[in-house]
């Protein structure tokens, strides 16, 4: 079986983002069989404007759509902003979901998130699951990786210091790999 290409998307633009660190930790915890590539350009994506969503969209949008189309699966880490997902992440999903062919339709997606608060990113993940379901993505249901008090679990150097969170991330990657493998088999039948 070939390696699966996973596009890792952080919903945070902050340089010292715990969510970006969570994705880097996931890449290091890769159980094998996955090639995890980080999406680094969400901040360059213009605000969604249907007038710009034409045959030739803005170059950053075209590049993002190409990376999503080439990926077998997505791994999204989201912080929580006002009990929901950050605007930059919603904006990216809006651009991706309106691409010809519906790039998220049937696409396996795993969700994780970190927050210094006591609830992790549970409300943001709930909102993200609802958005992804509405565009037909195949969301990994379990395990739920909601890293609460992330400032005590992820060091200032961005290194994951919590073995429980590491185990959850490994399990999430395994579940994503299984869902993506099944999706590829279904597409070839």
TrEMBL record:
Coiled coil: none
A Pfam family matched in the record: FMN_red
SUPFAM superfamilies documented for this protein: Flavoproteins
InterPro entries assigned: Flavoprotein-like_sf, FMN_Rdtase-like_dom, NAD(P)H-dep_reductase
Domain NADPH-dependent FMN reductase-like positions: 5-146
Protein name: NAD(P)H-dependent FMN reductase
Organism whose genome encodes this protein: Allokutzneria multivorans
């Amino acid at each position: 079986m070939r390696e699966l290409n996973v596009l890792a998307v952080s919903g945070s633009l902050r340089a010292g983002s715990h969510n970006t660190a969570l994705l880097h930790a996931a890449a290091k915890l890769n159980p094998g069989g996955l090639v995890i590539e980080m999406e680094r350009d969400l901040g360059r994506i213009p605000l969604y404007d249907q007038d710009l969503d034409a045959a030739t969209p803005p170059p950053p949008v075209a590049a993002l759509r190409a990376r999503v189309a080439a990926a077998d699966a997505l791994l999204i880490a989201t912080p929580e902003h006002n009990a929901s997902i950050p605007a930059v992440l919603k904006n990216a999903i809006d651009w991706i979901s309106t691409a010809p062919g519906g790039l998220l339709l049937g696409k396996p997606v795993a969700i994780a998130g970190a927050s210094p608060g006591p609830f992790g990113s549970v409300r943001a993940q709930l909102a993200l699951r609802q958005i992804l379901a509405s565009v037909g993505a195949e969301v990994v249901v379990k395990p739920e990786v909601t890293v609460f008090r992330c400032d005590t679990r992820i060091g200032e150097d961005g290194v994951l210091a919590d073995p429980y969170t590491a185990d959850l991330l490994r399990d999430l990657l395994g579940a994503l790999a299984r869902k993506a493998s099944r999706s590829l088999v279904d597409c070839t039948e």
